Write the structure tokens for this entry.
Amino acid sequence: DTAVSQTPKYLVTQMGNDKSIKCEQNLGHDTMYWYKQDSKKFLKIMFSYNNKELIINETVPNRFSPKSPDKAHLNLHINSLELGDSAVYFCASSSGDRGRGGYTFGSGTRLTVV
Amino acid sequence: GNSVTQMEGPVTLSEEAFLTINCTYTATGYPSLFWYVQYPGEGLQLLLKATKADDKGSNKGFEATYRKETTSFHLEKGSVQVSDSAVYFCALATGNQFYFGTGTSLTVIP
């Protein structure tokens, strides 16, 4: 009955590989997000989708590509992984109130690139 | 532009001490304000929120009051416990954007 679930929880991979992180929410929210948290705990928005449409696309390398097959899912695909991509990636969702009710976060995916 | 500024950490307190983590914001319009907590190895959890001026959000002994005149939303707790050790994030929502502060790490020692 997890509200926002991400898989995998941990991901260790070599430089140059391609990997995906999956996110699903069962809250009926229409907006989903990907955040990157660095080692200093700083949270940076990467992407936001509303009803499967991209509405926020911050300055991230184009090796990162989000995919939203439906409004309950937002996956993150990363090509040609680099050491600097190591971080914790959080998926989140919010309802149609433009986030005024708050975001619900997944538990994070810790990506380590070696 | 819109932004959130919170006090830098780390903060270390003894058990049962009083906690204040300062948060101020800059925003156009009338934002909603939040405090999120991140326990070690976990995701962010909504701790409390306030949607309009003078609202007080409260949860688990934590409180914060939305002060429009000082553009602040300081987090307080009268008596912290070891289990409160975590990173606390102040945040605001306005328009269709959400802004997080940089986080304040709190360690409570027995």
